[in-house]
Design a protein that fits this description.
Number of strands: 17
Radius of gyration: 48 Å
Low-confidence stretches: 372-387
Structural class: alpha+beta
Distance between the termini: 91 Å
Order of helices and strands: EEHHHEEEHEEHHHEEEHHEHEEHEHEHEE
Oligomer: single chain
CATH topology of the largest domain: Heat Shock Protein 90
Length: 449
């Protein structure tokens, strides 16, 4: 056993030393212990051996010997056979144990140094609810433990928290993940892991992530999504009402007739179909785009006119489109009426403008020079705002035979032109009709920014 045994007299003589002691420190040869161990002329100031002579009680302490090694010292009062007082000292070499312990402590400190810098709140809990370690993030949130149990200093509770699930890992030996709203209202995402201390005692490595702001953001997103869904339902309802109104108008066209031609009925249904398609295309553009409430209207018009071109089965007719479209994002309340207007006016050109089967339809979407936003105009001026307040113009023209003079915008019996007038009023716009070199409709309107 790596231990020495000696007997020491009150005058520092060594009447007995075992083989281990003499092998490591030599024989005393009548010298006092401090003389031959440390070549001193006085007793060592740090020596605690002779305390037992004052107290009459055993004493334990640690000593670094002249060989530089560490010893765990046990001193006991002892009586010699002649009744004289001696000290029995046992020294156990613990050098390797201390070195191993120091290595473990250094490794543990490196672990703590890593945990200290992590942004998550991390602590080590022992079975009696004390906090053996808490990193900086944890301390910033809850303060210093000051020797108190976790429930005392974290939440000011005298007993362990009823909602706490951390100690399940001591029962199961398995990691545990849970979420909790603590008394201050913070929402914490908790990860608990079984952990073993250097001495083999069980602990809990606890990692808390404050997700309060993330939860608020998630709740806000849910509310936004709910509002978006409500808005979609509202738009669908409005669109269905528009379709219903269109069908009512179409019905009025035939209500006064006793006999209707099949071709006229088919044409009426095709017109209604094209109106619905013009609305459906808007939803398709919204679905494909990266915005939920606006669409790029120029791109939409290109698709709408292409669909109309196919719908009227132009065949061998030489009718072409010329599009000059600036980029502009429109909301649903403006895009749907304008889409139906374009559908009506382009359809009229296809049906009536080119009896010879040859011509050109042109659509221009332009920003005006006076492009003030409606939101920039004083409220008192909006109701009386004339054409000068509009910031966009939609022009639809053809070089066909032109609309007869007796047909006017306000007095026309044409369902399509009646509908165009209604929709222009709906978007608070203005419409002009020019009959020079064919037909041109000029619609002025406001795009909100």
């Amino acid at each position: 056993m790596p231990a020495y045994v000696v007997l020491l007299s009150p005058d520092y003589q060594v009447p007995f030393a075992n083989h281990f002691f003499e092998e490591h420190f030599g024989k005393s040869e009548g010298r006092r212990c401090y003389e031959y161990l440390f070549q001193r002329v006085e007793p060592c100031e740090n020596c605690e051996t002779y305390k037992v002579l004052k107290t009459g009680l055993p004493h334990r302490w640690e000593w670094t010997g002249p060989d530089g090694r560490n010893y765990d010292i046990y001193d006991y009062p002892f009586k010699d056979s002649d009744g004289s007082t001696l000290i029995l000292e046992v020294g156990i070499d613990i050098t390797e144990t201390k070195q191993a312990h120091a290595a473990v402590q250094a490794e543990r400190q490196r672990l703590f140094d890593v945990l200290e810098t992590l942004p998550a709140m991390i602590c080590l809990l022992v079975p009696d609810y004390h906090v053996a370690f808490a990193n900086r993030s944890f301390r910033e949130k809850f303060g210093e433990s000051g020797g108190r149990r976790c429930h005392e200093y974290r939440h000011g509770l005298a007993e362990p928290c009823e909602f706490c699930e951390s100690y399940k890992v001591l029962e199961t030996g398995q990691p545990h993940h849970w979420e909790v709203t603590i008394p201050d209202g913070s929402v914490i995402d908790v990860y608990d892991f079984p952990f073993t201390d250097v001495d083999g005692s069980p602990m809990i490595l606890k990692m808390d992530v404050d997700i309060t702001e993330r939860k608020k953001a998630e709740e806000a997103l849910v509310k936004i999504e709910e509002a978006r869904i409500k808005e979609i339902h509202h738009r669908i309802k409005n669109n269905l009402q528009v379709i219903s109104s269109l069908l009512d108008l179409q019905k009025e066209k035939f209500s006064h007739r006793e006999v209707c031609k099949v071709s006229e009925v088919i044409e009426a249904f095709m017109e209604s179909q094209n109106r619905v398609i013009s609305m459906a295309l808007i939803h398709e553009e919204l679905y494909k785009g990266d915005k939920i409430d606006t669409l790029e209207f120029g791109s939409y018009l290109r698709k709408l006119t292409a669909d109309l071109f196919g719908s009227y089965n132009i065949g061998n007719k030489d009718i072409s489109f010329k599009l000059n479209l600036e980029q502009v994002d429109l909301d649903m309340d403006t895009a749907i009426p304008l889409g139906i207007i374009v559908n009506e006016l382009v359809s009229n050109s296809f049906k009536h403008a080119f009896p010879a089967g040859k011509g050109e339809i042109q659509i221009n979407l332009l920003r005006t020079k006076n492009s003030a936003s409606k939101s920039d105009i004083p409220v008192s001026d909006k109701d009386c705002m004339g054409k000068s307040g509009f910031n966009y113009i939609l022009e639809l023209s053809d070089n066909g035979k032109g609309i007869p003079e007796e047909i006017g915008l306000e007095s026309s019996n044409s369902l399509g032109l009646q509908l165009v007038n209604i929709l222009v009023e709906q978007i608070d716009g203005e419409i002009e009709l020019k009959r020079d070199k064919g037909t041109e409709f000029k619609i002025s309107f406001i795009v909100q920014r």
